[in-house]
Design brief:
Protein name: LON peptidase substrate-binding domain-containing protein
InterPro entries: Lon_prtase_N, Lon_prtase_N_sf, PUA-like_sf
Pfam families: LON_substr_bdg
Distance between the termini: 30 Å
Length: 249
C-alpha cells in the first residue's frame, strides 16, 4: 500500500473524478492552504496543485467563528480542525477525491477564487490537525471496471436521458440538447452520480463503489426509482440539472 500526504478540504458535497469544482475560499485555514499550493506550484510551473476533498459526515463546513454567519452568539472556534471535533477523521467519509486546482485567483481581500477538477479517488488513513490547515495520509484507489461495465453504461445512459426528460417535464422546462454524453463506462458512472439529484450519503455510496460495474448497477436502480417518483409528482424543487449540459472538463 502506497500513501501520500495531501492538504485536506472537507466539504458538504461529494467530488467525483472528472468533475469541475468551483470554490470560494475565505476561511484563513483554507487561504493558507491555497497560498502554500501556489507557492509550491506557481502559474508558470507544470506541477499540479493537488489537495484531497472529502465529504463531511458530522461537522461544519465553515467554522462558527467565521464572519457572515447568522448566529452572532456562536462560540468561537479556531485552528485547522475547527468544526470537526477532537478526532477529525471520524467527521469525514472514508473515501474522497483528489482535486487539481488548475486556476487559483487571489482577490484583493486575501480570499481566493479556485477552479479545481476531480482526478482520482482516495481512501483516508489519517488526518493531521497540527498545522494551519488539515492534511491527510491518503491511498489512491484504482478504478476496477468490473463485469459487463460497457453494457451497463449503455443502460444507464438510456435511463439517465429518460430521467432528464422526466425532470424537465416535471419542472415545466425545456431539456438542454446538443451535448453528447460520454460512453466510457467509468466516466458515465461518475457523470451520472454527480448530475443526478441525490442526497450526500447516496452520492458517497456511489463514489466508494468497489468497481465501475457496481456503481452503474446502483445508478440504474436509482434512476429508474427516481424517474418513477417524478412521473407521479406534479412539481419538483428547483435544481439546475436541466439548465445545461454537465461539464466533464
Amino acid at each position: 500500500m502506497t500513501t501520500v500526504r495531501l492538504p485536506l478540504f472537507p466539504l458538504n458535497t461529494v467530488l467525483f473524478p472528472g468533475l469541475v469544482l468551483p470554490l470560494n475560499i475565505f476561511e484563513e485555514r483554507y487561504r493558507a492552504m491555497m497560498r502554500d499550493l501556489v507557492k509550491a506550484a506557481p502559474d508558470d510551473s507544470d506541477e499540479p496543485r493537488r489537495f484531497a476533498v472529502v465529504a463531511i459526515r458530522d461537522g461544519h463546513e465553515v467554522a462558527p467563528a467565521e464572519p457572515g454567519l447568522p448566529d452572532a452568539t456562536a462560540v468561537p472556534e479556531r485552528g485547522a480542525a475547527a468544526g470537526f471535533g477532537p478526532d477529525p477523521l471520524k467527521s469525514f467519509h472514508g473515501v474522497g477525491c483528489i482535486a487539481d486546482a488548475a486556476t487559483v485567483r487571489e482577490r484583493a481581500d486575501g480570499s481566493f477564487e479556485v477552479l479545481a477538477t476531480g482526478t482520482t479517488r482516495v481512501r483516508l488513513h489519517s488526518v493531521d490537525a497540527s498545522g494551519p490547515y488539515l492534511t491527510a495520509e491518503v491511498e489512491e484507489l484504482e478504478e476496477d471496471p468490473g463485469d459487463e461495465a460497457g453494457a451497463l453504461a449503455e443502460g444507464v445512459l438510456r435511463a439517465f436521458r429518460n430521467y432528464q426528460k422526466r425532470l424537465a417535464g416535471a419542472r415545466e422546462r425545456s431539456l438542454s440538447s446538443g451535448a453528447e454524453l460520454p460512453d466510457e463506462p467509468s466516466v458515465v458512472s461518475y457523470l451520472v452520480a454527480a448530475a443526478a439529484v441525490l442526497d450526500t450519503p447516496t452520492k458517497q455510496r456511489l463514489l466508494q463503489a468497489p468497481d465501475t460495474a457496481s456503481r452503474l448497477r446502483d445508478e440504474l436502480k436509482l434512476l429508474r426509482a427516481e424517474t418513477a417518483v417524478i412521473r407521479n409528482l406534479p412539481s419538483l424543487p428547483a435544481v439546475d440539472l436541466t439548465r445545461g449540459p454537465t461539464s466533464m472538463n
